[in-house]
Amino acid sequence: MTSDGWIGSVGDGAGADSALKSVRTQTPHRAWVWEVGPVLYAQDGSEVVQNPRAAEPRGSWRWDFEDLYTEELSHSAAERPIGPEARTVARAWVRDEDAVRAAFVNARAEALRICSLVQ
Q1: Distance, CA of 21 to CA of 8 (rounded, Å)
Q2: 91 in a domain, yes or no?
Q3: How many CB atoms are closer than 10 A to CB 24?
Q4: How would residue 119 be classed by pLDDT, with cut points 50, 70 and 90?
Q5: How many domains is the chain partitioned into structurally?
Q6: Could you tell me if residue 20 is inside a domain?
Q7: Do residues 20 and 13 touch, judged by C-beta distance below 8 A?
Q8: What DSSP string describes the chain?
């Protein structure tokens, strides 16, 4: 049903505070996205193993409203949350399996650089 059809069936509820403002007029995009991580690193740069397979590429379908959906050729992140017990996190997600491996190499290098700054 379109948003116009919904308004017609339930009344004129399309005001500024209406939930209909978030109704999509088109079908969401979907893409197969490859992901590596998150992999955690301790302050000394050693890997903290929470999931032994986290550093292996895995793919899944993602809708454009979900986390990690991307149409970019390369996307990676490395960050360290605040706190004494915080771990530096490296992850990558892209549309191509070979590209996700390369992006993760960059994310891991950045994570290790961040670890060296914290010590």
Answers
A1: 15
A2: yes
A3: 10
A4: low
A5: 1
A6: no
A7: yes
A8: --HHHHHHHH-S--STT-GGGG--SSPPPEEEEEEEEEEEE-TTS-EE-S-TTTTS-EEEEEETTSTT---SS--EEEE--SSTT--EEEEEEESSHHHHHHHHHHHHHHHHHHHHHH-
Across residues 4-30, what is the average pLDDT?
67
| Range(s) of the domain holding residue 93 | 26-118
Residue 7 lies in a domain: no
Decide if 11 is inside a domain: no
Query: What's the predicted TM-score (pTM) here?
Result: 0.74
Residues 6+ apart with CB under 8 A from 102: 74
| The one-letter amino acid at 74 | S
Render the burial of 68-94: b for 16+ CB within 10 Å, e for the rest.
Answer: ebbeeeebbebebeeeeeebbbbbbbb
